[in-house]
Amino acid sequence: DAGVIQSPRHEVTEMGQEVTLRCKPISGHDYLFWYRQTMMRGLELLIYFNNNVPIDDSGMPEDRFSAKMPNASFSTLKIQPSEPRDSAVYFCAVGGRTGELFFGEGSRLTVL
Amino acid sequence: EDQVTQSPEALRLQEGESSSLNCSYTVSGLRGLFWYRQDPGKGPEFLFTLYSAGEEKEKERLKATLTKKESFLHITAPKPEDSATYLCAVRETGFQKLVFGTGTRLLVSP
Asked: Is the Cβ pair A91, B34 closer than 8 Å?
């Protein structure tokens, strides 16, 4: 169950540029999550949505990060302006009431 | 604050050499402990959910167990294809999000 399609798979950009990461859930789930993974800190939750409504954004690092879910089939995570410390793999995941999450392949972001 | 600690950070085994991975957790009320497998360049893949102390789940060479403070992932007679990072996560009562540990990198040599 892939659950999610993410794009782009890889993004290399320069500091100060805007970055938009995309997530398309394949099957119907009530919840959508954005996680960030680094070697130092592992998987960290950024934000999650329930039925397209943001529920908990306490993990969003700062105002440079924003996320939207305009409908059940699409979500974006935007970083503006990007900084080198934002370099990480960003995962989108979907899940239901039982709690299991199904992750996408991730978007590897490198900010130079 | 929920905490999940996994040990060891890395483990190297010979093919057929059984071992266990540990996940210790601190949570106010456990509403599920989850094990995932992650291959390089891929997203985490769901393996098991455990809900209460004493519960066990099995899948091929893997068996997960749960106590009130920790979970173990037992790997019996591992094969090279079991090489991956194994992640543990907890879900607290009243919350939907999962809090992950930093994982154990397992390498099984032929």
From this structure: no
